[in-house]
Amino acid sequence: MNSYYVGNVVTVAGQLADADGTPGDPGGVVVKYRNPAGAIVSKTYGTDPEVTRTAAGAYQMDITATLEGVWTYRFESSVSRIAASEGRFTVRESQFN
What we know:
Elements: E1 2-5, E2 9-15, E3 29-34, E4 40-44, E5 51-55, E6 58-64, E7 69-77, E8 85-92
Parallel strand pairs: 1-8
Antiparallel strand pairs: 2-6, 3-4, 3-7, 5-6, 7-8
């Protein structure tokens, strides 16, 4: 698991693919992330400029790490059953704060 410091901007990426593993753009791409306090934020590709498409089925978003602990994220489609992508990263307090 990748580790960052509070205040870092973390770029998370997700790949969406069909059952055969072929990357695809299903529409309705949503990125959800949960901070260590349990708050869930949801962003939608095409509506929220934070979510960008980098290639077929490939999306990314920057998250500002504001709290120490484990952050989780998920890229999914709200309109099809194309495979979702999940991940997590750790944030720790700097010794200089």
